Amino acid sequence: MKVADLILELQDMNPEADVHFAYNYGDHWRTEVAPKATRVYTGKVQYSEYHRMDKIAEDDEDCYEDEGDCESDANVRRVVVLA
């Protein structure tokens, strides 16, 4: 989904409605939980083989000086994050 797609989806919704995000809790019953979104920010993500999905790329953890600047890493992408 692109930001433009999100804007289109939200334009007809109640501007006073709360915003939540959903994910599978990972329990035995595969409960889908929906905590309240508390912030929106621009972040960096990169694909994690271990998780089989994108994860937040932390500069001090995932981008090492001896490997070059994280911004030039083709695996790291800037995205909009709802948290």
Task: Give the radius of gyration.
Answer: 16 Å
Terminal CA distance reads 16 Å
| Shape, principal axes of CA atoms | flat
- Secondary structure tally: strands: 5
Largest sheet: 3 strands, antiparallel
Classification by helices and strands: alpha+beta
What proportion of the residues form beta strands (DSSP E)? 25-35%
The mean pLDDT is: 88
Question: How do the strands line up in the largest sheet?
Answer: 4-3-5
Please tally the helical runs, counting DSSP H or I stretches of 4 or more residues. Answer: 2
Poorly predicted residue ranges? none
Overall description:
With 83 residues, this protein is of the alpha+beta class. The protein has one domain (3-82). 14% of the residues lie in helices and 29% in strands. The chain is built from 2 helices and 5 strands. It has helices spanning 3-10, 59-62; strands spanning 23-24, 32-33, 40-48, 53-56, 76-82. A 3-stranded antiparallel beta sheet has the order 4-3-5, with no helix packed on it. Strands 1-2 form a two-stranded antiparallel ribbon. The radius of gyration is 16 Å and the shape is flat. The relative contact order is 0.20. The model has no long low-confidence stretch (mean pLDDT 88).
Summarize the structure.
This protein is an alpha+beta fold and 83 residues long. The chain is 14% helix and 29% strand.
Describe how the helices and strands are arranged:
Layout: H1 3-10, E1 23-24, E2 32-33, E3 40-48, E4 53-56, H2 59-62, E5 76-82
Antiparallel strand pairs: 1-2, 3-4, 3-5
